[in-house]
Amino acid sequence: MNTQELIITWATPVFFLLIAIELLVAKLRGRQAYAANDAINSIGLGVISQLVGVFTKLVTIGIYAWCVEHLALFALPENSLWVWAGALLFYDFCYYWLHRMGHEVNILWAAHVVHHQSEHYNLSTALRQTGSGALLGWVFYLPMAIVGVPLKVFVVVALIDLLYQFWVHTEQIGRLGWFDRVFCSPSNHRAHHAVNDRYLDRNYGGILIVWDRLFGTFVEEDDSDKPVYGTRSPLRSWNPLWANAEVYWKTTQDAWHAKRWRDKLLVWIKPPGWRPADVAARFPKPDFTMPTERFDPPLSWPLKLYVLVQFALLLGMATQFLGMAGSVGFSALLLYALYLTVSLCVVGALMEGRRWAVWAEGVRVLATAAVPLLSGRWFGIGHLDGRIALAIAVVFGLSALALPWLGGLRPSSSLHHDVAPG
Q1: pTM to 2 decimals?
Q2: Nearest-10 Cα torsion for 206, 209, 214, 219
Q3: Each residue of 202-248: pLDDT tens digit?
Q4: Rounded to 5, what percent of the chain is helix, strand, coil?
């Protein structure tokens, strides 16, 4: 486990404590800040982002390290306070442009869209991260390597910038006066996540909102125009793989249908929503209208409780995965990551009320119970303690026994039923 993964792992309990506090504050104020299905989907996407990061950070950090070693214009010292302060400022500036281009270039939006898909706005939304951002995002930070910002400094300031942005994803903190004019704040970032015309594609700053003021992308939250969250092409799914693939797939379809080769390229680099004229004519899409309801398929309380328990178990496994990332072979890590990803997809299907989901979940929990008990192995662990294997078998065996009862309790109403936001 590298330093960044270690800090995020230790920070995770703090994240969940703050989520609990936010939930409590909202309850005391008579507000509905969370929906269980949405929060599970957001946190699950954060888990997948961390799983992917284990495999991609070696490449992205490796590229940065090579550039520092071979292309740096200056040899900046690691032990200088000014280097650290300048690097944090420089990183936030680079982040502003990555974030802005993530809204203005479709192939970058295809990765960033994951963070905006939630129709709720709370601290779990902060954990909702893309699994494909590493494909191109690293390019925007290469200027730091060329200037000579040391690798260690880069990694730490990147983590500081990331962790700072957690707390701004809440509706429970109002305006903060002068702070709102200088820094990214809950008020400023609420506007960023909104689909209202007033707020669309504004307030990109990570720590500082000054960049938006300098480059003309700042907008102030207006109490007379409450932010409405989500995207202008709603996801309407709890499938984390589809959440990551949706825009890539739709853009690929438009590129395939485009008659001109020029348009097949432009569809990737034009702003989100742009479509070749011939494609738009043959495959029209409805105009955007402000949403009045949220995606919320009905779920019985027993099945909701079951999903919460299974999701908690998967979170524990994901924590174990990150802990063993530096000491286990590639094949074992890859299999474990695939198991966790498939499990999160099945949980998402349960929350959607998919008819096949109960059967898929039955296969998953039975396999999870049987494999460690019969083989004495777990992903990357060659000799699993017998008591642990038995405990796993009992927990997931009981889960399998509960499923037929829970499946029968699932509401029979439509698969994609919406309810008005609370």
Answers
A1: 0.93
A2: 110
A3: 999 999 999 999 999 999 999 999 999 999 999 999 999 999 999 99
A4: 65, 0, 35
